Amino acid sequence: MTSTNYAYLSNYFIYSSMAVYTIAFFAHAVEVAFSLRNVGEDTKFDFNRTKKSGRIGSAMMILATLLLFAGVIARGLSAHRVPWGNMYEFSITGALAFSAAYLFALWKFKVRWLGLPVVIAVLLTLGTAITILYRPSAPLVPALKSTWLAIHVSAAIVSGGVFLLANCVAATYLYLDNMERKGPRKPWATRLPSLDVLDQLSYRLVAFVFPLWTFAVIAGAIWAESAWGRYWGWDPKETWAFITWVAYAAYLHARVTIGWRGRRAAWLCLFAGSTFLFNYVYVNIWGSGRHTYSGL
Amino acid sequence: MSTAPELDASGTLRWMWRQLTSMRTALLLLLLLGFASVPGSIFPQRSQNPMKVREYFTANPALSQWMDRLRLFDVYSSPWFSAIYLLLFISLIGCVLPRTLEHFKAARAQPPLTPRFLDRMDSFTEVDVNQKLALDLAEKWLRKKRFRIRREENSISAEKGFSRESGNLLFHLSLILILVAVAVGGLFGMKGEAILNVGERFINAPTSYDNLSFGKFQKENTLTPFSLTVKKFKATYNVQTNAPSDYLLNVSTENPVGNKSVDSAIRVNSPLTFGSTKIYLQANGYSPVVTVRDKSGVITFKGPVIFLPQDGNLTSTGAIKLPDMNPQIGFVGSFVPTYSRSSTRGAFSAFPEALDPRLLLSAWSGNLGLDNGEPQSVYRLDTSRMTKLGLKQLKIGESYNFGEGSITFDGYRSWVNLQIVDDPGKMYALVGAILAILGLLLSLFTRQRRIWVKVDGAVTLAGLAKNGLPGLAEEINLLKSELEKGRNA
Fold first, then answer.
1. For residue B4, what pLDDT is reported?
2. Is the pLDDT of residue A21 over 90?
3. Exposed end of chain A (fewer CB within 10 Å): N or C?
């Protein structure tokens, strides 16, 4: 197959995965909406009634993730390189990492309740990617031609996916905590895990991926040394990667050493995650410096 | 500080030291360092882009004066930034070194005695097993699982996961090593840049550089005595996107000068190395080659003039100055490698390769302003005391007669910008970084826990996991079934 064929194939896969994600979205929406039941005066949510719909949602998520994976691979084949050369490619790979992190968490921690927010986030990312960020498949600029591209960027993307998942969990924690302060949980929220579980989950996600993020930064430094002649130069992207690292280091210390739990920890987690998002969006699109590969 | 007793000088110092090395202070400093690095990513920095700083000054003269006083254009070398990381550094040392000593002591000491009341600990359970055999069986199992064991007459106290704290300390000690490596690089390193036309020879001496900076403790005579000749430079571009796809620089080098010359290639991701000195290909552009003659036809200048690229298609601008002609002559020039023209932009380059090169010149006569000693950019012409003679666009081989003489566009050459760097600290930084990751993995993924076995009328088990990490209950169940198996054997 030629490069152009692969590029078309990749686009078909991405569009198909978006279609299947949309089915997953409706399945999860039905799961929440049709679990409503009126018991006398009260409205109750009974998720046993819509179990089937939830299962369909999960199955569609798996299928869509596989399609997205195929799309990312085909994009790489079309350009004869790893598919991380511009912001369109970062975004589809990021959506893949996020989606895969969710499926991993679904298998390990039984978090189907996260399905709806995750599928919305993935659809928004893919939608933005394919409409605003899309660029034709092309070879890399010389500075990106290095084995470190695969190592550094994959570590950064996977870390980003897990950081954002931890952020979803922390945000859910804060929302439910507010709700519980006003009284008992609303019916639809009774299905979500207890505050303690959410609190532990976001910590474990961060603790799991923090070494990987550290590695991503170090791999970037090693690459920068061979491409730009210095391993650290306070380039805006480097600066913000450092800020993210510092913020998550502070989060881990606050939890392990000082014993922060609950609201304060969740806010710190959200803050740390937002530095990562800022780095991805602001520095890639509007920032200056040497990391401007968005292609925009 | 509500009821702090009156302190003498040494007491105050000790109090300050305790405050500085407390965990809270360290955490605060860490967050502060994060915040302090933000302005450096918003405002242009001299260390990265001095041109942009100058533009900022022109755009906001009054404001930038004040910002400069706050060192907002040199954030990462400013006193306030240095103060934060030095305090953090001291705090880190004050925190980690005592803990390391303690950890060494604890490593040699036996696990603590078995608590008197096991039923207050986690996963308390009773095992139905021969009391005489129980301790031997338990010790055997725990040793196989690599627990550290303290056996008393009626009890065993076992501990595992010591490497959690080892990893934690290794991580923080590695961070100190990285900071030291950065300092070594800054104090003993050098960094310089040189622009060379294809065909030119570079000898590694301070005078050959366009700009050069040494670390505080680095002497000029320590430069590696190599020479380098630029043989050929080839840039390849994608015809659809105009983006560069490959740069290849062929050079021949002598190290030291006078030795046999060696041919080698430099690419963007593969620099050339002499010991700890590395040579990087940083940028490239075009130098139009011109010949200038005076009225009588005598050649006053002949050679390549470096022009600076202004866009991705290498539309380049520069200046040609002829101070020895009478009157002094100067040209403001624009070189377009692939000529194209539009009504809005005038002449511009449509592709970065030199497919249809043109040289656009405006000629000036008068005072170049070189004699008053003020430094001047070689790429710009100060036309404030000059009068314009005319404008001309040239193809290769064409000449322009500007009245006081003539200029011929002979052709062009590529130039490359080489960055030459010596950072003796970077190996230590790399070692520090690798150790830091190992330490981090050890400390985040090791479970530290204790298990006790007591024979006291009945055989009882219990344990305790640091930070309440899961997995202890399963482990104690395993030990229990092992003991019960032993009973049946």
1. 53
2. yes
3. N
Smallest Cβ distance to A235: which of B24, B48, B267?
Answer: B48
Q: What pLDDT score was predicted for residue B1?
A: 42
- Any CB–CB contact under 8 A between B437 and chain A? yes
Scanning B444-483 for CB atoms below 8 A from A yields 444, 467
Distance of alpha carbon B418 from alpha carbon B193, whole angstroms? 6
Four-point Cα dihedral A92, A97, A103, A109, nearest 10: -150
Whole-complex ipTM: 0.82
pTM: 0.82
CA–CA gap between residue A140 and residue B164 (Å, rounded): 42
Interface of B with A in 62-101 (CB under 8 A): 75-76
Q: What percent of chain B has pLDDT over 90?
A: 40
B195 touching A, CB under 8 A?
no
Q: Do B30 and A250 touch (CB under 8 A)?
A: yes
> How many angstroms separate the CA of residue A208 from the nearest CA in chain B?
8
**What would the mean pLDDT of B265-275 be, rounded to a whole number?**
89
SS3 A45: strand
Q: Which of A52, A47, A19, A21 is nearest to A33 (CA)?
A: A47
Interface contact flag, A221 B41, Cβ < 8 Å: no
SS (H, E, C) chain B: CCCCCCCCHHHHHHHHHHHHCCHHHHHHHHHHHHHHCCHHHHCCCCCCCHHHHHHHHHHCHHHHHHHHHCCCCCHHHCHHHHHHHHHHHHHHHHHHHHHHHHHHHHHHCCCCCCCCCHHHCEEEEEECCCHHHHHHHHHHHHHHCCCEEEECCCEEEEEECCHHHHHHHHHHHHHHHHHHHHHHHHHHCEEEEEEEECCCEEECCHHHCCEEEECCCCCHHHCCCCEEEEEEEEEEECCCCCCEEEEEEEEEEECCCCCCCEEEEEECCECEEECCEEEEEEEEEEEEEEEEEECCCCEEEEEECCCEECCCCCCEEEEEEECCCCCEEEEEEEEECEEEEECCCEEEECCCCCCECEEEEEEEEECCCCCCCCCCCCCCCCCCCEEEEEEEEECCCCEEECCCEEEEEEEEEEEEEEEEEECCCHHHHHHHHHHHHHHHHHHHHCCCEEEEEEEECEEEEEEEEHHHCCCHHHHHHHHHHHHHHHHHC
Q: Does residue B86 carry a pLDDT above 50?
A: yes
Task: Name every chain B residue with its beta carbon within 8 A of the beta carbon of A223.
Answer: 269
